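Many introductory courses stop at the sequence. We go one step further.
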Amino acid sequence: MTGTTATPIVEIGSGKLQGNEKGGVLAFKGIPYAAPPVGERRWLPPADPLPWAGVRAAGEFGAWAPQNKGALDDVMGAEVGAQSEDCLSLNIWTPGLAGKRPVMVWIHGGGFTIGSGAQGIYEGGTLARHGDVVVVTINYRLGILGFAPLAAVTGGRIPATGNEGLLDQVKALAWVRDNIAHFGGDPGNVTIFGESAGGMSVGNLLALPAARGLFHKAIPQSGACHTCADPGTALRRGEAILKAMELDADGLRKAPFADLLRAQRLLEGGRVEGYPLAVIGGLPFMPVADGVVMPHNPIDAVAAGVAAGIPVLAGSTLDEWKLFGIPAKAIQQLDEAGLAKRLGYLVGDEHTPGLVAAYRAALPARGIEPSVPEIFMAIQTDRIFRIPALRLLERQRPHEARVFNYLFDWCSPAIGGRLGSPHAVELAYVFGTYTKPGAEKFYGEGEGAAALATMTMDAWTRFAHEGDPGWPAYETGKRTTALLGASRRILDKPLEAERRAWEQVPDRWLGSL
């Protein structure tokens, strides 16, 4: 590894590790936090990691979870590493092995089907050095291997609840609790943070009994507590998997992961006969409120106080859905009839007219021509991302006053600047990795970018240290929000007309595709 030197050897319960040092930060990569979920362990909850003899080199990332190529990889400049079902590893960046620093555990996004903690944009050295924190990034099982509800449809022969990927995250957090002190981290001060499916994972972990006590603060970015399948939808997804694979339980256990990924692609495209996306949902793989692992819908559990005492920093970008809608020909050609039909499916016919009217009136004040595609993308931005974040803060506040909101409005230069401030544009500023070669094509560059990275890392690491990002808490009277972009502006009740339009829309319509 160019520009790196060997670090001291660290001994943990499983064995000895040797990573590398670069730029004053120690990095340990590819550390197994669970046994390989292969063979008979496919679709089972994660087991304890296997010990090793001698000194294990920890200078390279572990394998990525099996996944198909993402539709937006080229737009975002994403890379994909070598894949294997033996993928349950984590990576650590620390300023030093002594001390008790706050720990920040990153859960990557990607629709529960793509991504890795090894993606270059999540390189944790800059954030660790900037905020004097220990940064951990994790892999977890994805898609059909991590979120396949197969127990009911196989009569229990495959006992998968659809929450195995979520339980992987819990196992990683347990590993952090047990081992992070050896890397200069404080197991009593752990912040979980994640974006998109990672933010939705954070929202689910807030409600998950198995995760209690394993983290102490939470930063869900562009995702909250509204992305969790009900048992009926989960059952239909399990049926669709069996239909696509045409195998029994034994066959599923032995099938090459390449075959499973082909079946996953069919589900994602709604191409399994009898199971279109209207039946299984536009995001066919996600956690499940199965009544056992996840006893209740996460937003209801948070409202009941299961996450009491956990400070939350939640938010979204201003134009989330433009990342998906601008490149989509069907969205750009949408007319009034098509808008009504799509929204009827997504929010219910009874809510559609009011939402369309509200956004048609509100968008001009934001400098946006209220065309049909713009109305649809703005509604989708709020339905899936912004409103769930606000509802999480509202439901958590009675149980913990330290809840904070942000809205990211930095614009991406991609696709001729037409994306506005799209989904995922904050990532390079949370990690300070906006200067990585090629990152400027999606994330931007220049003096403003440098200031934004400092501003964002300051807020995120201050929250990890103190439970306070540096602006007033969110409460329903003022709805104080930090607008993060070319500068930081503290606003009360931003985009209030749009928010009010959602007041009568039940939670069940939010957060999922």
